[in-house]
Structure formats: structure tokens, C-alpha cells
Specification:
This protein is α+β, with helices and mostly antiparallel strands and 453 residues long. It contains 11 helices and 15 strands. The strands form 3 sheets. It has a 6-stranded mixed sheet, covered by helices on one side. The chain has a 6-stranded mixed sheet with strand order 9-15-14-12-10-11, sandwiched between helices. Strands 2-5-4 form a 3-stranded antiparallel sheet, with no helix packed on it. It is globular. This is Brassinosteroid-related acyltransferase 1. Keywords: Acyltransferase, Transferase. Belongs to the plant acyltransferase family.
């Protein structure tokens, strides 16, 4: 690239158009797992029909209207003085919106599906300094490129929204901005009235059962994913390898519908009688390939964990429009040798069984397992974590004229997560973005792509 400089020309605080009455919103343990920002960058093709100033103004107006309805997004986190747990103060403090430009062209960034260090300059990153009361929960930066294209980089605290809620919030904001539209309606997105109260997720067992559960070890309580994480950490602490000392890189592999069907056929055989979802077989294949590429010792425990939406798993289910965090991790574990030797059918069945165990009791046990002090988990090469975004096609959010060229997540704040993304070029294709240790990319590519030839 000729130059990688990005110049910021405007930074302002955006307040709700209609101020809401201040209140304290109690968060659940699921909300408190990660208070830091998750960043996502939308890239849009060039257009000469609007200036940077007019686009910035329309985004500001749209955000003002959206914050009036999604009032927690204009608030701030604050610790409970009694126990230090974070809650959310809805106090109309506002979001941050930044305007910037760069002389480089979007085409100079290459394949937008692959992470690029330059992407970090396209998002506004507030400094925490340990004071959540001054830390905005929503930030955004609109950047004009030399070619006339644009990016909109967003950062949203994970304590505020999970993926589906963030998708609806951003869709609502895009609809209300209406920069290149004649009508203020999102395309193909059913927006629900947001429900911000955590409600069901704040209710645990009755007092007697809750005290019984607290007295049980995590492995007995039913929170399998938390038990597996604990065992992985203990395995690393007692082993010879140091945790989190090596640099991870990200690479995206685009799997066409044909490649996915070949993987299913190669993994499950030609005889039929055992249908499986694309997620199940890709997750199983990814787990095998990544573990092998990482050269994990045969006797070591390895683990696959993946997010499961708890909205309809709770009894009663959460209301439509629920805007908090409602995902728990399901988990399967084997030794590295067992993982290499087991058939795909067996591993897919393990993944299915892990999903089926996520019920009301599992979710309550999971929340109970998060009751203790929270700490950042270092990267573990024995742990493969998958987040399925294929049902949240962020690239379809029309902030500007038409769909985005790509919607690229940046590195997650805590875990090195593999993302499954819907490809903008083919709705039947899946982009798999994988975190890998430097030096393992060639081996992983060989193992991962071989099963789809």
C-alpha cells in the first residue's frame, strides 16, 4: 500500500434523541463474561452520490434515534460496590462516532475476508484505564477511502449484546440512517422491539436447590464446558508448555457448497442413513485438522467448544427481541489420539449430544459455574472454539448503498475463536476464519482442505 495513514477529522458523542429515565439494569453472569468490545468492520463499494460529511451526519441522526429505543447502548457499566459485579447504568451518556479518511483504495487491502493489520486503524478504540463508568459501550468510525468507498467500523461491548442482539441493533441503526434509501426499512430483517431486562437469566434455582448446587463440584453440576476449561487450564499449568506465549494468526478459508457436500460424503460415506448439518461436519473436521496442525501430544486432552443459543432452551423461553447475552458453550473432549482415530460419525454424534444437553438445567448450571471471579483465558492450542455467525449475515446490513462488500470481525478480546461466516459472494458458501499459531498455517491448510477434494 502506498500509505497506510488514516486521518481522523471528527470525534463526537452521540446522545439519544429522546432521553430515557435513568435506571440500573442488572446483568446476568452471561453478560459479565466479556465487558470489552467486539469489533466488526463493514466495507462498502465506491459511490459519488454523497459526501463523507453527509454520510456522517445521517449516521449520527440514525444513531440518535436508535439509542432512544436501545437505551442501554447509551449507558455505562459500573461495578456493584458490594460484590464488584458489573451492572449497567442506563444514564444517556451516549455513544462515540468518529469521522476519518485515508488515501488508499479498498482494492489495496486485498481479500477482505482475511484479517489485515490495517483493519485496526478503521475502528475507534477507547482506553479503559480500569474505569468502566467512562467507557462507552458503543463506538463507530466511518472512513472514506481514496477510491470513494467507505468502511464503517463498529465496536460493541459484549456485556451489552450478544451476536443476534448486535445484529438487530446494527440493522435498526442502518434502517434509521437511510443514507441511500427512499424508505427507512431494512431489507430482509425482521426487527423486534428490544427487551433489555435480563429477566429469566437473573433467576436461578429455588433457594434450597441453589445451595445444593453450589456445594457440588462443577463437574457434577452439569456445566460440562466449564469443567472442560478447568481441566485444560490445569493440564497446561502442570505441563511443560507455557500458555499464551506464542502469537496467533488468522486465516479465512472459503468453503463452497460443493466443497461442503464433498466433505460430508468423504466423512460420512456414500451409503446415506446418517445426515448431518454443515456446522457439525465442518466443526468436527476443523477440530481434527487444527489439533493435528498444532502437534498436540497424543495423551493430552483436547476440547471443542461452540456457542449454543439459549433463548429457546430456557423454560419458559426468552421473549423475542431479548437484547442481552443468551449463549452458553457446549463442549466435547477427547485425547488427541482418540480425536485422530475416531470416525467423523462418532465425533458428529458427540457434537449433537453436546447440543442436546443444553437445556434449562444446563444453562442454570452454566450460570452458576460463572459465579466465581472472572479472568481472561490465555490461548490454549488444545482448545478449539467455534462461533457460528452464518445465521447473522452482517454483510447484508445496508448502512450505505446496497450490501457490504464484506463484514470482517477483528480479533476477539478474550478467546481465539474460529468464526463460521456466510459468504457475501454465495449464500451457500461458508467462510471459516481460524486462529492458528504462526508456523502451523501450511500444515493446517493441507489437513483442512484435503477432506474436500
Amino acid at each position: 500500500m502506498a500509505t497506510s495513514h488514516v486521518s481522523v477529522t471528527k470525534t463526537l458523542t452521540v446522545f439519544p434523541k429522546t432521553l430515557n429515565s435513568p435506571k440500573l439494569l442488572e446483568l446476568s453472569n452471561l453478560d459479565r463474561q466479556c465487558p470489552l468490545h467486539v469489533y466488526l468492520i463493514f466495507f462498502y463499494k465506491p459511490s459519488s452520490s454523497s459526501s463523507l460529511d453527509s454520510i456522517f451526519t445521517n449516521l449520527k441522526i440514525g444513531l440518535e434515534e436508535t439509542l432512544s429505543v436501545w437505551s442501554p447502548a447509551a449507558g455505562r457499566l459500573e461495578p456493584n460496590p458490594a460484590n464488584g459485579k458489573l451492572n449497567l447504568r442506563c444514564n444517556n451518556r451516549g455513544a462515540i462516532l468518529v469521522q476519518s479518511f485515508t488515501n488508499i483504495e479498498i482494492s489495496e487491502l486485498g481479500d477482505l475476508s482475511n484479517y489485515n493489520e490495517f483493519f485496526e486503524k478503521l475502528v475507534y478504540k477507547p482506553v479503559l484505564n480500569g474505569n468502566f463508568s467512562e467507557f462507552p459501550l458503543v463506538v463507530a468510525q466511518v472512513t472514506r477511502f481514496g477510491c470513494g468507498g467507505y468502511s464503517i467500523g463498529t465496536g460493541i461491548s459484549h456485556s451489552l449484546f450478544d451476536g443476534p442482539a448486535a445484529y438487530e441493533f446494527l440493522s435498526a441503526w442502518a434502517a434509521k440512517s437511510a443514507i441511500f434509501k427512499d424508505k427507512k426499512e431494512p431489507y430482509g430483517v425482521e426487527l423486534h422491539t428490544p427487551v433489555h431486562e435480563r429477566g429469566r437469566l437473573l433467576m436461578d434455582y429455588d433457594a434450597k436447590r441453589s445451595s445444593e448446587k453450589r456445594a457440588m463440584p462443577v463437574s457434577v453440576s452439569g456445566a460440562v464446558a466449564i469443567d472442560h476449561l478447568y481441566r485444560l487450564i490445569m493440564q497446561s499449568v502442570t505441563g511443560k508448555e507455557e500458555m499464551g506465549k506464542k502469537e496467533y494468526v488468522y486465516r479465512t478459508f472459503r468453503l463452497s457448497r460443493g466443497m461442503i457436500e464433498r466433505l460430508k460424503k468423504n466423512a460420512m460415506g456414500e451409503n446415506g442413513g446418517f445426515a448431518c448439518s454443515s456446522f457439525d461436519v465442518i466443526a468436527a473436521h476443523l477440530w481434527k485438522a487444527r489439533t493435528k496442525a498444532m502437534s498436540v501430544s497424543n495423551e493430552k486432552m483436547v476440547c471443542l467448544q461452540f456457542a449454543v443459543n439459549a433463548r429457546n432452551k430456557l423454560m419458559p423461553p426468552l421473549p423475542k427481541g431479548f437484547s442481552g447475552n443468551a449463549f452458553v458453550l457446549a463442549s466435547v473432549a477427547l485425547t488427541a489420539r482418540q480425536l485422530e482415530d475416531e470416525s467423523y460419525k462418532t465425533i458428529v454424534e458427540m457434537i449433537r449430544n453436546a447440543k442436546s444437553r443444553v437445556d434449562n438445567d444446563y444453562i442454570n448450571a452454566y450460570k452458576q459455574g460463572l459465579e466465581g471471579p472472572q479472568a481472561s483465558l490465555p490461548p490454549l492450542k488444545e482448545l478449539t472454539v467455534v462461533s457460528d455467525w452464518t445465521r447473522m449475515p452482517f454483510h447484508k446490513i445496508e448502512f450505505l448503498h446496497g450490501q457490504a462488500l464484506y463484514a470482517s470481525p477483528l480479533k476477539p478480546p478474550i478467546l481465539d475463536v474460529a468464526y463460521f461466516l456466510q459468504s457475501p459472494l454465495d449464500s451457500q458458501a461458508i467462510d471459516v476464519r481460524v486462529p492458528l499459531l504462526e508456523g502451523t498455517l501450511e500444515a493446517f491448510s493441507s489437513y483442512f482442505l484435503t477432506g474436500m477434494q
